[in-house]
Amino acid sequence: MDSLLRENDVTPNKELAIEALNLNYSFGGPLILQNLHLELHKGSRCLLVGANGAGKSTLLTILAGKRMVRDKVNVFGKNAFRDTPSGVTYLGTEWANNPVVRGDVLVSTLLSNMNGDRYVERRDKLLEIMDINPNWRMHLVSDGERRRVQLVLGLIQPWDLLLLDEVTVDLDVLVRSDFHLCDFSQLYRIPFKSPIEGLGDWPTHVAHIKRGAIVALHDFYNDFPELDKMITKSLELRTTNEKDTQSSSPSTAHLRRDMDSPLLKVVEQWLRQDFIELRQLKDGEKKKNQAEQDKVLLGEELPRTNWDGLSDNMKIHGDKYYNYWR
């Protein structure tokens, strides 16, 4: 179980595990990912932080080889979709909603189907960490217990790259803490407002994704000035509060308000600023659309539809959508 338990910190090496260059992706509409650049070396443990709709899940599924893209996306030097390397494990939120795993099936049956008998020691250790009874029936367990079963099934087989998409949100604090103590060389996503206590010494990198692009990738130990500033501010505030406590009553009520993780505070600042910028963009688009509608109502311009946009884009669509009758 040396590959599962954290006995020593993992030191990233020079070989790239993930390489995404100028990545663009859409579902047929506006770009979800645009000019995204991300490089992570083997042994990295990266927190991927971003607001709802920023493109976190889309990026993880692309790295897992579940979506085909034109741009360069390599995992361990191989194309993530066409030549998906072995040892890539992706765990997402959709598994727990699968009606199959909500049926009357034993956990032991699921473990056998995932070759749990081949990795007995690894399986037993995971069952111990996640506190799972193999005799559980999946239709009788809670959402948190079902999520723990998913993690065990996904981690039974050895992996080289682990991609986790909000799979710890249903876990209680104790199980989440034990899970974070495992040795994981992975790209790990945390959703906003999910508990991230205990992660302060876990990541080697923190990536901030905003509107489909990586706007910051910090080395957690060597290049993270925002976190350093927040830690310094927290220490200064705590020192001041302790002096006030010694000089007056020994109340600790004011200390409780300042016990949040510095990393959590940095992430909150990022996402709050993202929210403000997104709201400003939406307000600008709303005013622009309103102005165009006013021109149409006043007869200054003709109404314009999506078909008009397609017909004008001759470079991409040729004359497929061109309106010869207007």
UniProtKB/TrEMBL annotation:
PROSITE patterns: ABC_TRANSPORTER_2. Transmembrane segments: none annotated. Gene3D superfamilies: P-loop containing nucleotide triphosphate hydrolases. SMART domains: AAA. InterPro entries: AAA+_ATPase, ABC_transporter-like_ATP-bd, P-loop_NTPase. It holds the Pfam family ABC_tran. Keywords: ATP-binding, Nucleotide-binding. Residues 18-267 form the ABC transporter domain. One of its GO terms (molecular function) is ATP binding. PANTHER family: SKFA PEPTIDE EXPORT ATP-BINDING PROTEIN SKFE. This is 12372_t:CDS:1. It comes from Ambispora gerdemannii. The lineage of its organism: Eukaryota, Fungi, Fungi incertae sedis, Mucoromycota, Glomeromycotina.
